[in-house]
Amino acid sequence: MSIEIKVPAPGESVSEVTIANWMVKEGDWIEMDAPIAEFESDKATFEVNAEKAGVIEKLIGNIGDTIAINTVIAIINTDAERPAAVAAPEAKPAVVEAPAKAVEAVKSTPADAPKAVIDFSNVNASPIAVQLLKEYGVSLDKVKGTGANGKITKVDALEAILGAGVTAKVAGGSASGTGKYHETNREPRKEKMTNLRKTISRRLVAAKNETAMLTTFNEVNMKPVMDLRNQYKKKFEESHGVSLGFMSFFTRAVCIALKDWPAVNASIEGEEIIYHDYCDISIAVSAPKGLVVPVIRSAETLSLDGIEKEVKRLAGKARDNKLSLDEMTGGTFTITNGGVFGSMMSTPIINPPQSGILGMHNIVERPVVENGQIVIRPMMYLALSYDHRIIDGRESVSFLVRVKQLLENPQMLFDGKKPEEVVLGL
């Protein structure tokens, strides 16, 4: 017999989706629960799986087509015999290659061998360093990381690019040291906007047009947090199996400040202000198909390692386009970190229906005055964009000052406990 596979509704408000990718082709044998296709809605990316094993008789639609929910997209013949060449499915342990091995494999490749595609996602490098290496086609064997734990920094990437003699961006990411610019195609390319990109565009325009958005700025001395992080990060990773980043400190500081200034954690619904006694913190993540904002639920109840684990889990699902609709809805306040891309200062846009968003930026050593003396400190600009309809200037500025105060005095984040007790979960 043949069965029809239909597109399920990923959420109540979703009426149509776009075919992003076919995972099989007609005539293929497919196991039960194996993915048939990947779809994009205006809020998330998801897969449709086979309900039973069989042979794909027909696939309906092309990549890029927009189709309605409950549309038939595949027909499977469940009476077909399993081909002899297809082995029965069996569980196989996942093999994860360590980043160091991946780098060593690249280093050991002969110069005249075909260039393999490098998986930069497993490389210990900053996002802007990866972007530069990709754009200029410089292989990993030419880069020496000087950051913490051998991390490749922006400066390392630039030095490698100059050392390789590359003077132009290379199409396709293949290494070149000729210094010659490549001819470019001057014909414009047109690509259909994905549902996700259309939704992002619509929401950003709505945020600008429907809110009284203002931005206030401040700066924070990151030395106390950096000193604390450097002191405990090795033990933290050994204890919890996750790195100690800045996001956990910022999230904890934001949650405390939101309790002090609840209007920043509120939203408008009609002619009513909705206050939240919990902190569902949205974290802006740059995913391959656009900006997504997964939510850390009840962040005020989480320890530092709990926050870091949630950030890692959600960011990983975002990069793999596996976030569910529930993981991307319901936030009360957003944090976005443009500093990972080298941003010095920006005015982040509110994520409706929220009323506030905190923008983090890059950390730069600058001269500052302390106790009448000029000293060098690692400084970060902070930006708070807020909806002036329900958040006044006093509240917005006081909220940001509170965040600054907590980060410059991180012992205030720990409710009277010793830093090592909180950081290490003792």
Q: Your description of this structure?
A:
β4 and β5 (45-49) form a beta hairpin. The longest helix has 18 residues, at 223-240. 27% of the residues lie in helices and 23% in strands. α2 runs parallel beside α3 (154-163). Strands 9, 12, 15, 16, 17, 18 and 19 form a seven-stranded mixed beta sheet that branches. It has helices at residues 99-107, 127-136, 154-163, 195-210, 223-240, 246-260, 304-319, 393-408, 419-423; strands spanning 2-6, 16-22, 29-30, 35-40, 45-49, 54-59, 66-68, 72-77, 213-221, 267-269, 272-274, 281-283, 285-287, 290-292, 295-296, 333-337, 356-360, 363-370, 373-387.
Strand and helix map with partners:
Elements lengths: L1 E5 L9 E7 L6 E2 L4 E6 L4 E5 L4 E6 L6 E3 L3 E6 L21 H9 L19 H10 L17 H10 L31 H16 L2 E9 L1 H18 L5 H15 L6 E3 L2 E3 L6 E3 L1 E3 L2 E3 L2 E2 L7 H16 L13 E5 L18 E5 L2 E8 L2 E15 L5 H16 L10 H5 L3
Parallel strand pairs: 12-16, 16-17
Antiparallel strand pairs: 1-8, 2-4, 2-7, 3-6, 4-5, 6-8, 9-19, 10-11, 12-15, 13-14, 17-19, 18-19
Helix pairs in contact: 2-3, 6-7, 6-8
Q: How large a portion of the residues is in β-strands, by DSSP E?
A: 15-25%
Q: Which outline best applies?
A: globular
Average pLDDT number: 82
Helix-strand topology string: EEEEEEEEHHHHEHHEEEEEEHEEEEHH
Using the CA coordinates, give the radius of gyration. Answer: 25 Å
Largest sheet: 7 strands, mixed
Q: For the record, give the distance between the C-alpha atoms at the N and C termini, rounded to a whole number.
A: 60 Å
**Total helical elements:** 9
Helix fraction by DSSP (H/I, runs of at least 4): 25-40%
Helix/strand-derived category reads alpha+beta
The total strand number stands at: 19
Which regions contain 5 or more consecutive residues with pLDDT less than 50? Answer: 91-116, 172-178
